[in-house]
């Protein structure tokens, strides 16, 4: 049945998973991560312009489904994302996502995009961006505890933005470590598979924790963290899920994205609600100090925030003309008379019957 061609206002640029992979491969992983980090940094620098709210979460015994909205006053963005650790046992991704940008002036969408791959990229870019401000100078070795879907993205981002040349891998599932080591074998990084967390952190100036199980866990104990280490804690991202022993937090400088959300979801849910933390945007804008000295332990208690997804979608939208990797999606009704939506339906029926 042929009804009618889409109207001029009905089409929205759509970036599919295939398009996203083509964009990444055309630009190059390291270059894209560096460019994406600059967008994220620019939006942290204008933090006060954004609408901010903790994400809207629907928790269940199986996982969580979340909406993450924000606006800078001109453009509105949101991301739909889930987190279901059991999914890998069923051949599904733990995390999937899609997102949209729209004009505040008229509410019309200007981009719809996959965000499963894009979330992995923006998480890694944000982590490495924070480490540029917080990690000890001259860091070259990172321990990566948790070698799932995010692992390689993190390694490549820290290589591109921070100059890491060695990554030490550990996961409770040796197959995950083998997978990550294979994927990183041609990356230019020295990859060292390890048999324990204790082995992985040896000689590391940066420790990234990125595990999936939604429970209070102690992936990293206080005795494993020496002076001057930067911890990139990205696995604790919902109520009841943490990775660091609280003793680490009590002696560290803690940096977060948006305090009200991190108090609910991050490592600091283990601490009193008035425990001091610094929001990362304050470091970016020079309103607060980052790393204070070479001996300080710093923690980036990252749970992911909507402005980072906004930055990522903004970056992708800017690549559409550069790459041509998108389709036009017939998403919005566009009647000849905006007050006559039902008439549009009737006329379509008449055309189809003719």
Number of spatially distinct domains: 2
Shape: elongated
User: How far from one another are the termini?
Assistant: 11 Å
Give me the number of helical elements.
11
The fold-level CATH name of the largest domain is Rossmann fold
Oligomer: single chain
Q: Uncertain spans, ≥5 residues at pLDDT below 50?
A: none
Count of DSSP strands: 17
Beta fraction: 15-25%
Strand order of the largest sheet: 9-8-7-10-12-16-14-15
Mean pLDDT: 94
CATH class of the largest domain: Alpha Beta
Order of helices and strands, N to C? Answer: EHHEEEEEHEHEHEHEEEEHEHEHEHEH
Rounded to an integer, what's the Rg over CA atoms? 22 Å
Structural class: alpha/beta
CATH superfamily of the largest domain: NAD(P)-binding Rossmann-like Domain
Helix content: 25-40%
Largest sheet: 8 strands, parallel
Examine the secondary-structure arrangement and name the CATH architecture of the largest domain.
3-Layer(aba) Sandwich
Which features does this protein show?
eight-stranded parallel β-sheet, 354 residues, 23% strand, elongated, alpha/beta, ODC_Mu_crystall, ornithine cyclodeaminase, domain 1, seven-stranded mixed β-sheet, single chain, 2 domains, Rossmann fold
Give the gist of this structure.
This protein is of the alpha/beta class and 354 residues long. The chain is built from eleven helices and 17 strands.
